[in-house]
Amino acid sequence: MLITDRAIVRVALQHDLVAGEQMVHTFHFAGSGDYPSWGALAAPLSVGDAATKAQGSWSGQFTTHPALWSAQTAFRKVTATLLDSAGRASEVAEVPVDSVQAGSGNSMLPTSVACAVTLRSARAGRSYRGRVFMGGFSAAVVNGFTGRLTTDARDGLLQAVQMFLRGMRTAGYVPVVLSPTKSAATPITALDIGDVFDTQRSRRNGFGEVRTRAVL
User: Fold this and answer.
1) What is the pLDDT of residue 14?
2) CB 27 within 8 A of CB 57
3) d(Cα 8, Cα 40) in Å, to the nearest integer?
4) What are the extents of the domains in the chain?
């Protein structure tokens, strides 16, 4: 579907790490239903509502899987941004977390360590898939023998993202892969994660890894 046919909202989930560092997970959503122009949301959908729904949906997953994250990792706020036809911010809403939620795991991995969750649509090609880097993990997510993400941690992280996106979709915000080059916002149909650690700047390609897949 062309982005000129849908309202696109960018949602950023902000977390505090150690020594003043922050981590942000960014997702894009389209308002469910067809609208006359990009940048319009049908009632009761709104930028403020998107931020509130995202805060509630991610809070639920952050507290369901607290052992994944270090006790030093705290969920702070959600910022939702309505994008105009040029991809610029036309309206912004922020919702702080009422009670700052921290993970319960032991010592934190280096803040540069992340896991890339791949977001897939029903269309083939790099323009129709995306990724989000997750981090702030407890050291307990590392398999002591292989140095990779444990099976339980991989499954838990995948479920957390899956249920967050399902919660947003139920609220009327369809998770999409946004491709400015193709001027398209394609609904996400599945996501997967491998057991090789990445960094928040890039994936580690060329490693054979076990991948777990979930559908939306």
Assistant:
1) 93
2) no
3) 8
4) 3-215
- DSSP per-residue letters across 23-55: EEEEEEEEESS--SSTT---TT--HHHHHHHHH
Q: What is the dihedral of CA 138, 129, 43, 95, to 10 degrees?
A: 20
pLDDT at 166 over 70: yes
Location of structure tokens 């949301």: 41
Q: Would you say 73 and 82 are in contact if contact means Cβ atoms under 8 Å apart?
A: no
The answer to whether 153 touches 159, Cβ cutoff 8 Å, is no
d(CA 178, CA 27) in angstroms, rounded, equals 9
Higher pLDDT, 144 or 179: 144
Round to whole Å and give the CA distance between 177 and 146.
Answer: 32
Buried b (16+ CB within 10 A) or exposed e, 85-110: eeeeeeeebebebeeebbbbbeebbe
pLDDT tens, 192-213? 998 888 876 544 444 455 666 6
Q: Name which of 71, 76, 142 is nearest 108 in CA terms.
A: 71
The string over 154-193, giving b where at least 16 C-beta atoms fall within 10 Å of a residue's C-beta and e elsewhere, is bebbbebbbbbbebbbebbbbbbbbbeeeebbbbbeebbb
This prediction has a pTM of: 0.86
